[in-house]
Specification:
The structure is a homodimer. By secondary structure, chain A is mainly β. The first copy, chain A, contains 3 helices and 17 strands. In chain A, strands 1, 2, 5, 6, 7, 8, 10, 11, 12, 13, 14, 15, 16 and 17 form a 14-stranded antiparallel sheet that branches. In chain A, strands 3-4 form a two-stranded antiparallel sheet. The longest helix of chain A has 16 residues.
Amino acid sequence: MIGNFATATQVHRRPGSTDTHAVYDAEIAKGWDIVGNANGGYLMALAARAMGDLAERPPLSVTAHFISPGKVGAVTIEVEAIRVGRTLATMRANVLNADGKPVISVIGAFSGPRKGTVQVIAATPPVLPPADECIRTGPPPGSDDVGFRDRIIGRYPAEQVEFRYDRPTGKAEISGWFEFADHSPIDEYGLLLAADAFPPVCFNLDGSPRTWAPTLEMTVYLRGLPAPGPLRARFFGVCVQGGMFDEQGELWDSEGQLVAHSRQLALLPR
Amino acid sequence: MIGNFATATQVHRRPGSTDTHAVYDAEIAKGWDIVGNANGGYLMALAARAMGDLAERPPLSVTAHFISPGKVGAVTIEVEAIRVGRTLATMRANVLNADGKPVISVIGAFSGPRKGTVQVIAATPPVLPPADECIRTGPPPGSDDVGFRDRIIGRYPAEQVEFRYDRPTGKAEISGWFEFADHSPIDEYGLLLAADAFPPVCFNLDGSPRTWAPTLEMTVYLRGLPAPGPLRARFFGVCVQGGMFDEQGELWDSEGQLVAHSRQLALLPR
């Protein structure tokens, strides 16, 4: 049975943990993988759950370095509190596989509730067709479950996913609607997942292979808790250079609030 | 005596260090502080020097969380190699003050030489007046040394630094020319400094106090080694919300190559 996002990111603190050092048992859940490897945002969310548990507050800024693919199965998460202040807690963590090898290494700031008032905003949500006029990628309803792509619904303006037919836009950009397939609410942890849930922007570059683009590093700023409903997301790359590309993301909630900023550095597919 | 950037960021590995765990002695140098607190990019560079020494290669992506102000004086840097691969090494470090309290906590990927070929670029260097027509901030030549502002030369289009006379542009943006005051060459470590060397973009917001804007987190991608000469830099914020603002940076070398991308999350001055 494949659980929802909340159950698939459960973590269990081991006895003997202290206020500053704790070990968590968790599982990379089946159904959240892409051909056997867990989605990067899912891994970040798993680590952040353990860090947020020890910090006793949700994430504000999370950075993950991706070291080895996350295979379905047991992992341990070693969490260390660097400093716990009144409002902010700085935490770091390593997610280790069953062989004790690092999968991701994470640092983050965790913070209690903050006023969401927007004072200045120099960006706007992407202009998207209504969700039902967008292309939903992934397998057709009723087909065999293939993993991660069945856990989320991404709906894209048709021209932005023509790369599937070898007609990329030529511009490192993909935008669309995001929600969980089971309509689970999206909290800070869900935003970490959403920030890495779309096809990589390099898929829209001319001549780019459309295979795995391994993320080296991803940082997500959680700027607000989303209002209910699907998110609007826009991802774009600024520079493809030296075999690497950046992908920046802006995630907006149904009320037009910028709820997350993401940025990653990834290797071009080969 | 105030040393140049290279001598001011020297680190010394302690005997007894291993390939995966090392402790470095270093000093937050006088002259690189702003009213007694070290510049954030300087602290990142100091940590990255130790991490790069253990990794035996320069930084590619560095993230720092700023925990307490860095006062001039001795620090220790505890470096841990999470994984050292053939091309990439993932490292983390804590910089501790003389009391053993964390100043910054850092994670980074370090990488050997990489091809700098630009394949796609969706940004352009800022359009700036010639350096000699820009405003150079900081004290006039010959005045008493006040610290960090005497180590670097920032030259700005006049209208962008009118905030000094309480005439902000109203737009969260500052661009200009950057170089070391002694014309030291700018390597990957110098880029870490340059990414945090300009006044915070919030200084150009209407009604913002122009005092310390504490950085919570900063990530810098080192996309290439700069050609000789001053950098052109553009910093801009996308969202001011909940008492925090982001500041994104693009740094360009004299040949028009994007050499670094930065992003930070900071608290609004109060």
